[in-house]
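Title: Prediction job returns without error message
Component: structure pipeline
Severity: low
Priority: P3
Assignee: unassigned

Description:
Job completed but the reporter wants confirmation the result is attached to the right record. Sequence as submitted:
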Amino acid sequence: MNKTIADIAQMAGVAKSTVSRFLNGGSVSENTRQKIERIIKQYNYVPNTFARSLKAKKTSIIGTVVPRLDSYATSQTLIGIDEELRGLQYQMLIANTSQDMQREIDAIYDFARQKVSGIILLAAEITDAHLKAIEDIQIPVLLVGQQHELLHSLIHNDDQAGYVMGKHVIEQGHRDIVYLGVSEKDQAVGIHRKRGFQRAVAECSDCKVRYYETSFKMSEAVVTAQTILEASMPTLIVAATDNIAMGVMKTAFSRNISIPQHLSVTGFGDYDITEMIHPTLTTVKYHYSQAGKLAAAHISQLVEGQSVRQKTILDVELISRESVDKI
């Protein structure tokens, strides 16, 4: 049976308030401290931080709202957040919304009722409902992966990512190109990443680019790629994410289209698997774990009332591999 504060207090011969004060870093006598520590160690007592924080004036919990858990970008960001929060003596609660916008709004209010100190929000789109919820709860909120002028935001440089990829494939001689993106409801991937790419190809006088949309799911990218390749054969498909790129590659292999000899393919993200598949994938590296650590540092600073830059932009890096042929 798990021991409670009352059990610890009884065994130490002190009041519950004394044990609570000790657990919250308050002052107790050396003799009392040693007794409490000995009992805690003997029974492997783990303080219920969540329950304690509900009664505390300032909690030690940060809520994190994520659109999906089966995403490399999300998982790596969460790892970074968790590692940094632990070092800062905070704990993380996660609300997965399964890409349901109403569940995102509900999660914001739910976290407020649970008295978290701050919220890290990974959202594809910020609506008026998001802004109203954030205004209502009066708790520090940090937006990660997207930006909004009214919120503290931490973003990857999607415009630059699209631009460096565009410049790279043009330098490799590609002129007949398909860009396979996602809905513009996702501002980072759907708008900024594509705009960066368009900025690069605008500098090329003889480039022919066709634009398609799919979802973030690899299975749907497979279907969209079939439509593209049935219509005509470009020399290159630029996919808006590594998952989409791998969907394109699966379709190409099923049609006996050799990569990169007959079709070059690129992605964005630099997921771990992209350097394990054959051919290895040319992509743009995003520093997701670093973003998570920085997000945790920023939200803790906001909770403490410290000044944080309104918008922080993380650099990206082109990773040139085997999936792009030079023409």
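Comment from assignee: result matches the submitted record. The chain has a mean pLDDT of 92.
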